[in-house]
Amino acid sequence: MIAFFAGTAEDAAAIARAFTSVTPEVDGPFHVHRGNWRGEAAAVYLVTEGADMAYAGGRIAARRGAKAMVSVARAVSVRAEEAPVGALGPAGAVWDLAGLLPLLRLLPDSAEELPMDPGPLLPEAAVWTADGMEAAPGLGTVPFAVRTPLLLEELRRRRGIGLVDRWSAGLAAAAAEEEVPLRPNVLVEGTVEEGGVVLAGELLLARRRDAQLAGVLGRPVKGGYNPVWHAMIKH
Questions:
Q1: Which of 31, 117, 152, 209 has its CA 20 to 30 A from that of 64?
Q2: How far apart are CA 22 and CA 166, in angstroms?
Q3: Nearest in space to 181 (alpha carbons), one of 232, 120, 135
Q4: Is the dihedral of CA 169, 171, 174, 180 positive or negative?
Q5: Are 7 and 167 contacting, i.e. CB atoms less than 8 angstroms apart?
Q6: Which of 177, 196, 173, 25 is nearest to 112 (CA)?
Q7: Are 56 and 178 in contact (CB under 8 A)?
Q8: Cα Rg, the chain, nearest whole Å
Q9: For residues 56 and 117, what is the distance between their CA atoms, to the nearest angstrom?
Q10: Predicted model pTM
Q11: CB 15: neighbour CB atoms within 10 A?
């Protein structure tokens, strides 16, 4: 079984549209779409409550026989030229930034300086790293939304974290514990611009998301499958 994970109901439904024989189910606390994709049993788990819920979802999916986990998380991009709004692509590493909580509690969105040095609060190593994808941006999971450009730039400078989301580190931890291959992807929902973080409208995101998912999940290519995602899942 291939286990997909999405952070919004709309993203989960968009992935499931590539399945055949789809049925909606409830598995523990999760809404799930189950079906078949490219001759494999598949399921999409909806993650709505952060890293802890993603961790639980990964553990449950492993118990259900998942042989690969593929996620699509919404993230904010630190540099629009590197990951523009609406882009859907892989992350090169996943970092757990839960240690930033003391800083985030003191940090207003409009801060012109950080109230404390984030260095001691950052992990030394990523939870997950991709082989052969050093050029892909790192993805950091924070305990709640970060809208302060100053901190986001610091994360990029100190750890190469160019994307920030709310739950991927939990899934990465579960995949590591269960020894299931993980392929984390992000849909860029906002970017750092002059004056702060700007989020895209849902209609724009949905149009770009659907076009890209159709390319990697929905439309057959040579051999009847998409070689990029086939390689991601089989290896």
A1: 209
A2: 27
A3: 232
A4: negative
A5: yes
A6: 196
A7: no
A8: 17
A9: 32
A10: 0.90
A11: 22
Structure tokens at 42: 């598949």
Extract the tokens encoding 85. Answer: 């709004």
State the greatest distance between any 2 C-alpha atoms of the chain, in Å, as a whole number. Answer: 55
> Could you list the pLDDT tens digit for every one of the 235 residues in the chain?
999 999 999 999 999 999 999 999 999 999 999 999 989 999 999 999 899 999 999 999 999 999 999 999 999 999 999 999 999 999 999 999 999 999 999 887 777 788 899 999 999 999 999 987 777 899 999 998 888 899 999 999 999 999 999 999 999 999 999 999 999 999 999 999 887 899 999 999 999 999 999 888 864 333 333 434 444 444 4
Residue with token string 């990465």:
172
Residue in 49, 48, 51, 20 with CA at minimum distance from that of residue 33: 20
